[in-house]
Amino acid sequence: MAIEFARERRDFNFVLILSGGNALGAFQAGAYEALNEAGLEPDWVIGASAGAMNGAIIAGNDPAARLAKLADLWRPRRGRQPLPSRHLGRTIEILRRSAAAHWTMTAGRLGVFGPILSGAGTPAIFETSQMVSNLDTLVDFERLNRGNVRFTATSVDIESGEDVLFDTDRDVLGPQHVRASAALPVAFPPVEIDGRWLADGGLSANLPVDPFFASPPAIPTLCIAIDLLPLAGRRPRTLGDAATRMQDLLFATQSHRSMTRWKDHYQRRQGENLPGISFLRLAYEAPDTEISGKAMDFSPRSVGDRWDAGKAEMERLIDGLGRFALPIRKTGIAMFDGRTQKEMVA
């Protein structure tokens, strides 16, 4: 059974990679809920942007507290939950999501970002200082830096264009490091750390697989990468469809190229008897009611839909790992599509 697979077979290392995607990050929170319930906890979490926020919460809390903290980030409003979006007609649902995204662009997201009311010259639409105090309540940074789960957040030097990694294996991280990973221009201002002005890690690699493949664990490893923007999609039929598809392709194609490049790299090194890597990519397959501004739709209904979708997709993935006994490779590399569990061809 899948739960037995998750809880008992720990003769391998488990790495969780989380992409950026702003409001779409609720999908990752739901996916983690399924992992948590199955007892499959990560040894290393790598995140960019929203994935860095989710990753810091996972790595910076006791497993028993992680879901509540994720819910505080994504579902802060208590009380009766709205009906799922499937109970609304498609046109009404698109209008609802559009209105929600427009509201976020006007008022921001409490605890994460808000409109700049003063401070002329700030090169951004929103301020993110409130993210620091919110992260202080959501993440135990002492545990993050000294706990059993390694955590890596990615960012980009906005002046040099160089990738900048923050890793608890060598750095002491605080809220500002996570904030820097989520500092997407033009929406959010860059963050200064040690004299460098840093921006969103998703600008360089929205699905941050490079830190993992550049220095994988020394034992066989299962890696699950949760990507919030899909590579494949239908042909656009409206301007809104075209804008959504452009956004997905801008980020998903860079992820695909990175995975292809690393798979080729490891296949060329097959004779070196390197520890095996079993890599699964699980992508958020957005419903056709998502809009071009989906990353700014933080409405409780949309967040709940994405959370539920993430949990359901990860439950299917874990069940497949158990039922089909997908091997944790002792040597070599294999890449699988997390939805179909078929091997990806580079």
UniProtKB/TrEMBL annotation:
Chain location of the short sequence motif GXSXG per the record: 47-51
Active site positions, chain numbering: S49 (nucleophile), D200 (proton acceptor)
Keyword set includes Membrane: no
InterPro entries per the UniProt record, alphabetical: Acyl_Trfase/lysoPLipase, NTE, PNPLA_dom
CDD domains: Pat_hypo_Ecoli_Z1214_like
Keywords: Hydrolase, Lipid degradation, Lipid metabolism
Protein name stated in the entry: Patatin-like phospholipase family protein
Organism of derivation: Sphingomonas natans
